[in-house]
């Protein structure tokens, strides 16, 4: 049977494993973005969190109510809260108690491989765009708050982030061709 958006929840309830494949294909990018936003620079935690999200969907599909929200919204919420839980666990295990200390500890050790990679990646952006990327993606500052700080529309923030991502993508493509 072909799995579609309409019969997805029914197929999960029937324990059709192809439904998980459909979720990964359909919502994998969304889940990845949500998890990576919270579980920064830790591939193992990211993979474990993604697995945990898929298991949570698999075992808790009966909790989904299509009248309250869409499946996409429901799975995004699960991913967000699982990723936050993983971030908290990561902070606890490294004995860092606050988000500010976590970011400070990361930035204070410039010799880490991740820091070097990040610096190289963001070097292709202007100073203002780099600061915007760091605040939004690394520090987790919401776009609404950034817009208020810069006294601009929230859509402007999203446009700048989008243009920056496109620029970084072009830089990656040009580097891989060399």
From TrEMBL:
**Cross-referenced InterPro entries:** RNA_pol_sigma-70-like (IPR039425), RNA_pol_sigma-70_dom (IPR014284), RNA_pol_sigma70_r2 (IPR007627), RNA_pol_sigma70_r4_t2 (IPR013249), RNA_pol_sigma_r2 (IPR013325), RNA_pol_sigma_r3/r4-like (IPR013324), WH-like_DNA-bd_sf (IPR036388)
Residue span, RNA polymerase sigma-70 region domain: 24-90
- In Swiss-Prot or TrEMBL terms, this protein is called Sigma-70 family RNA polymerase sigma factor
Keyword presence, DNA-binding: yes
Does the keyword Transcription belong to this entry? yes
Q: Which residues form the RNA polymerase sigma factor 70 region 4 type domain?
A: 117-168
Can you tell which superkingdom this protein's organism belongs to?
Bacteria
Q: Which UniProt keywords apply?
A: DNA-binding, Sigma factor, Transcription, Transcription regulation
Indicate the segments annotated as coiled coil, or none if absent.
Answer: none
Q: Which PANTHER family match?
A: RNA POLYMERASE ECF-TYPE SIGMA FACTO (PTHR43133), RNA POLYMERASE SIGMA FACTOR HI_1459-RELATED (PTHR43133:SF8)
Q: Which Pfam families match?
A: Sigma70_r2, Sigma70_r4_2
Report the family membership.
Belongs to the sigma-70 factor family. ECF subfamily.
């Amino acid at each position: 049977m072909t799995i579609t958006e309409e019969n997805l929840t029914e197929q999960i309830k029937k324990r059709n494993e192809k439904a998980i494949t459909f979720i990964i294909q359909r919502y994998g990018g969304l889940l990845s973005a949500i998890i990576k936003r919270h579980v920064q620079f830790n591939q193992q935690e990211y993979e474990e969190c993604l697995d945990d999200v898929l298991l949570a969907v698999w075992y808790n599909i009966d909790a989904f109510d299509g009248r309250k929200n869409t499946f996409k919204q429901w799975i995004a919420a699960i991913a967000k809260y699982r990723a936050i839980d993983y971030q908290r666990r990561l902070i606890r295990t490294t004995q860092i108690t606050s988000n500010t200390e976590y970011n400070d500890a990361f930035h204070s050790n410039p010799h880490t491989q991740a820091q070097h990679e990040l610096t190289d990646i963001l070097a292709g952006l202007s100073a203002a765009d780099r600061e915007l990327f760091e605040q939004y993606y690394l520090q987790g500052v919401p776009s609404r708050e950034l817009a208020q700080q810069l006294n601009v529309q929230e859509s402007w923030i999203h446009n700048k982030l989008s243009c920056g991502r496109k620029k970084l993508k072009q830089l990656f493509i040009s580097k891989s061709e060399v």
